[in-house]
Amino acid sequence: MSVYPAGNLLDGSGSLTGSSQQVFAAKPERLYLLIQNIDATNALWVNFGVAAVADQPSIKLAAGASLQYAVPGVVPTGAVNVIGTAASKFVAKQW
C-alpha cells in the first residue's frame, strides 16, 4: 500500500542556458523532487527559493549525479533554480 496518492510526475527537464533558470515555481505541497545532471562532463548547480550560482550556497551536482527528495516535510517547497554550462542537459521531476 502506497503512502502517497497516485499521480503523475511533472517534468521540468531541459537544457541549461548558462544563467540561472527556474525549473519549477514554488509549490508548498511538493512531495517529491528529482534533479539529475545528465551531462557527461560539466557540473550542474541547484538552489531553492533564490537564483542558482556556480558556487556556494548552491548544491553542486557533478556530471551524472542526482539529487532526490522523497520524504514529506523534507522536500524543498521553494522555487527550484539551476545553472550550468550552456547546452548541458538535465532531468527534473516533481510531484
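Second entry:
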Amino acid sequence: MILTGEKIIEEVKEGNIVIDPFTIDQITTNSYDLTLGNTFIKYTSETLDPKIDNPYELLEIEENMAIKMNKGDFILGSSKERIGSTKYVPIIHSKSSIARL
C-alpha cells in the first residue's frame, strides 16, 4: 500500500509514522521528500565482501559542497531526517531521475 501525502500527514500526527524533523513542505502527492545529510561512507576497496568489514572512509561535507565520484566509486549517504514506524514498512529511494543515472 502506498500512502497519499494527506495520509502521511495524518499518520505522522497520530504517531504511526516518525519523521523528525517533519516539514509539511516536503510532502508530495504520495511521498515525503527526504533531505540529504552531510555524512557519507565511501568504500575504499575495489570489491565489497559481505562476509567482512569492508574498509571505508567517512566523508563529512559542509552545506553546498560536492563530492567528486570516480567510475567504480560506491558511496552511501544518509538523510537529515530520522524516519520509522511500528505500523508501516517504509520504502526509501532517490528521485527516479537520479536512480536512472
